[in-house]
Specification:
- By secondary structure, the protein is α/β, with parallel strands linked by helices.
- It has 4 domains: 6-172, no CATH class; 221-368, P-loop containing nucleotide triphosphate hydrolases (Rossmann fold, 3-Layer(aba) Sandwich); 371-436; 450-509.
- The chain has 23 helices and 9 strands.
- It has helices spanning 6-20, 28-36, 59-79, 86-114, 126-137, 150-168, 176-190, 194-199, 220-228, 260-268, 285-288, 305-317, 343-348, 354-360, 370-374, 379-389, 395-413, 422-436, 450-458, 464-479, 482-489, 493-499, 502-509, and strands at 210-213, 235-236, 241-242, 250-254, 294-298, 319-320, 329-330, 334-339, 363-366.
- The strands form 3 sheets. A 5-stranded parallel beta sheet has the order 4-5-8-1-9, covered by helices on one side. A two-stranded antiparallel ribbon has the order 2-3. It has a two-stranded antiparallel sheet with strand order 6-7.
- A hairpin with a 4-residue loop joins strand 2 and strand 3 (241-242).
- Helix 4 (86-114) crosses helix 6 (150-168) and helix 17 (395-413) crosses helix 18 (422-436).
- The longest helix is centred in the first third of the chain and has 29 residues, at 86-114.
- Residues 445-449 and 511-515 have low confidence and may be disordered.
Amino acid sequence: MPLFEPAERSVMEAVATLTSGNPFLPERVAAEQEALGEEFVATTAVWHVEADLNGLNPNVPRISERVEALGASLRRRLVEGCSATPRELELYQILTFYLIYQRYAERWMDLIRQAPLGRGGKVRCWDEFAADVAHFFELPEREFPVSTDPAFLFALGFQLRRAFHHTFRRIYGGSMPAARLRAAVWRSIFTHDFRRYLRGLHRRLGDVPTLIVGESGTGKELAARAIGLSRFVPFDPDTRSFASNFAQSFHPLNLSAFSRPLIESELFGHKRGAFTGALEDRKGWLESCGAEGAVFLDEIGELAADVQVKLLRVLQSRSFQRVGETGERRFEGKILAATNRDLAAEMAAGRFRADFYYRLCADVVRTPTLREQLAGEPEELRNLVVVLARRLVDPEEVEVLADETVSWVETELGAEYSWPGNVRELEQCVRSVLVRGEYRPAAPPRPDGAEDLVAQLREGELSADELLRRYCTEVYARVGSYEEAARRLGLDRRTVKARIDAELLERLRGEAPDS
């Protein structure tokens, strides 16, 4: 008797695709349809919180029911001595883990809710989970390709649940650019090859830093937080507890908020007497971060060259020294970094070290602008406004405030408004409409002044390269699109992008350089 019937094999392969694939890419829809056949319910290709069914995917419980029945049947056949190829055992293992994951998803969610409140400690459902794993995998003369150690599977399931929660619930947007951002975050956590991750990469992925790039106000810290809070945390079956509390493992540090000497102290710590005011020994964030933790260095483009050298050493050798000490200390966690600067231009100008950049750039996540999210999807504006309104008013007032805000934007700002402050500006727009009934964006300041530019041209003080950089930056700041700026200037899009002066762009937009 074969282990699988042809129809069962089709379901198994579809579930394998769902389990090893990226849940935020539209490709999941085809796998759901393959798994369910006529029972499939058509849904939006972009899975997000504000979907028609409040973010719930109606196909998930249907697939879970089918997997429960199929898993029980396949286990019985294996116990009865049915032969199975290595691929069939692999499919059985994938399907069974999907089954167990769905059984415990809500209990893992309870652990996520408890962690920020410090209610960790012993996990109550561990014995039941271990019994389920033994039931499905402790089969005579059967070897599975991935570890069936219950503690590993419990830690993996908890990580998957955390990753989905922090990515799905914290990174908003129903547009395809927002979906690609969620998919990129998921890929940073598990890589593109989930099976390799299971085989052992989960133990080493902290060695790979993640660089998050994008304009101010596009949610770089949200992406960093989702990655940092979703790291693999081992589970100890003897103590029935996790190695660390994930909720306390993310350490954000805005580098632009500190003076040059203070940055080193915050990062590396210092020895008593190392400088004026160093009255006692102090740990820095790199030393305080545990093996399952992450240090988020916001505004990495602001970092002085000599501090870049010291961080480069951390990335290369995982070692550092406290300020005023010679002894070596070790960094065990993961580095996350973010910038709104064009690092290619910064390197060309000599302000950012190329060797430091190439240690950071193995995993790059780009956050989309609000302009990109709204392009061709006007309904997305209301979707985002509703999300922001929920933070400000009672539930019964959300729709009213959303209607007022969208009406003001459409009437007064128009569909072509470029939203230079991105989602942060949209949030202030909602607040302003709530309080004042209107939103009046500030005109981009001109710190250099048109008269000053003309005077410099008359005196011949600008080189051709400086003039091109300033003009490209000015046009881009006005239109908010490389393509449109290139069209107006008669240049290639890549030329415009390479000529943008990041500092001037920030001043033109009148924003502080935070994320």
